[in-house]
Automatic annotation (TrEMBL):
It comes from the Bacteria. Keywords: Cell membrane, Membrane, Transmembrane, Transmembrane helix, Transport. It is a multi-pass membrane protein. The gene is tqsA2. Residues 19-42 have a biased composition (Low complexity). Belongs to the autoinducer-2 exporter (AI-2E) (TC 2.A.86) family. Its main location: membrane. Residues 1-44 are annotated as: Disordered. This is AI-2 transport protein TqsA. The keyword Transmembrane applies. The chain crosses the membrane at residues 53-71, 77-95, 107-136, 190-212, 254-272, 278-296, 303-326, 346-373. It is found in: Cell membrane.
Length: 424
């Protein structure tokens, strides 16, 4: 009897079911994989895509970590480049005007920065000499101030204090000894901070010089990788940034001039020495140092006025507070709306946001940056004519709920006779 390859328990044709030979063969499935999805079964091998996916995920995580580390390491340099870019935008009108008259752009940029450097160095030198003279004067007059204070305390509280005892107590106190030790150990830290500030200032000046001198070349390099339509948008954005940054600096310079003249008149009237320099100090510091500039600007005139008469310091403080309110609510909104064309609330919010993101640098460049973005996006926002509805002008009309209570009472009163009867 010939052997057969049929299974003994397999159904046969006699049972009414097809045999394995008669049934259609199923699709071939690799061992260890399910026919439906091709994924690995519990007893199978690892899918081919899984190792590559794991390597790709690890590579992305490593690239993200490396990028984050590099960004944090270069944050200072990026901030310096941002400051230099806005400084180059500020001097762009003067450089372009000198270049249009036939002067080489590099020479024009050098002359502009030389003028700014000479003006800043002269102001710092004059201010330093003034501060040194006032500090010497205060040190020489300190015993007299101390005697006056001791006499007032003895007369008011019936004590018997003496200047010699107070001086001995201060010289032999632990507080003074610890302060001297900390000051001696902090000299190196202060020197390192000064050197770091000078290097940062040099970096900003170098980048801003290159941005201003090579402005046309930089614009050509940016436009060379863009299609013609995008090139027009980039050039338009650049022009708007130059106009808004120049307008912002113009408004700040005008407010600094007004503030300096006002404080100079007050200090000259009180007889405070170095009134012109103090006026320039108040004007520049209060306008170009955000957030705390007003307090720094007012502290120095108050200190100098205190050396003349303590009550003069109080008068200076009162004037600084009153003038600050006048500037915030009357002068600054008008000048900002004409030069930068930005709402005061938007300007305040942009300064707060810039301070939160980049500190003092963000507060300084926030207004021109927001003004540039607002002017650039304004060209792409479609505007429609506003309907002539009374509610647009801030009051309700008849279509918004009928006449008001006052109008209804007036009509009811006009509809009655003097005797109280209704008119026919």
């Amino acid at each position: 009897m010939a052997p057969t390859d049929e299974h003994p328990l397999a159904p046969t044709a006699e049972d009414g079911e097809p045999s394995p030979r008669q049934a259609a063969p199923a699709a071939a499935t690799p061992p260890g994989r399910s026919p439906a999805s091709g994924a690995a079964t519990p007893d199978g091998r690892m899918p081919r895509w899984l190792p590559r996916a794991m390597v790709l995920a690890l590579a992305l995580i490593a690239a993200f970590q490396l990028g984050s580390w590099a960004f944090h390491q270069l944050t200072g340099l990026l901030i310096n480049i941002l400051i230099a870019f806005f400084l180059a935008l500020a001097v762009e009108p003067a450089v372009s005007r000198m270049s249009a008259r036939g002067m080489r752009r590099g020479l024009a940029t050098f002359l502009v920065f030389l003028g700014l450097t000479v003006a800043a160095a002269g102001f710092v030198t004059l201010l330093g000499s003034m501060l040194a003279g006032q500090i010497i004067k205060m040190v020489e007059g300190f015993p007299g101030y101390l005697d006056s204070l001791i006499n007032w305390i003895n007369h008011t509280f019936h004590t018997e204090l003496r200047r010699v005892d107070i001086q001995k107590g201060l010289l032999h106190s632990d507080w003074l000894r610890k302060y001297v030790q900390n000051s001696a150990t902090g000299v190196l830290d202060v020197s390192a901070q000064v050197l770091g500030g000078l290097f940062q200032l040099l970096t900003i000046a170098l980048f801003s010089f290159y941005f201003a001198a090579d402005g046309p070349r930089l614009r050509r390099a940016l436009c060379s990788v863009l299609p013609p339509a995008r090139q027009a948008e980039v050039l338009r954005a650049w022009e708007i940034a130059v106009d808004k940054t120049g307008g912002y600096l113009y408004s700040r310079g005008l407010m600094a001039l007004i503030s300096g003249i006002a404080h100079y008149i007050l200090l000259e009237a009180l007889g405070v020495p170095y009134a012109p320099v103090l006026g320039v100090w108040v004007g520049l510091v209060s306008q170009f140092i955000p957030t705390i500039g007003t307090y720094l600007a007012g502290a120095l005139p108050m200190l100098i006025a205190f050396t003349v008469n303590p009550w003069y310091a109080v008068w200076v403080l009162v004037f600084v507070v009153i003038y600050q309110q006048f500037e915030n609510y009357m002068l600054q909104p008008k000048l900002t709306s004409k030069t930068v064309d930005i709402h005061p609330a938007v300007a305040f919010g942009s300064v707060v946001a810039g301070t939160a993101l980049l500190g003092a640098v963000g507060a300084l460049i926030a207004i021109p940056a927001v003004a540039t973005l607002q002017a650039f996006l304004g060209a792409y926002v479609k505007r429609y004519a506003v309907t002539d509805d009374p509610r647009v002008h801030g009051h309700r009309g008849r279509g918004a709920g009928g006449p008001g209570m006052f109008m209804r009472a007036r009509r009811l009163w006009a509809g009655r006779r003097p005797g109280g009867q209704q008119r026919p």
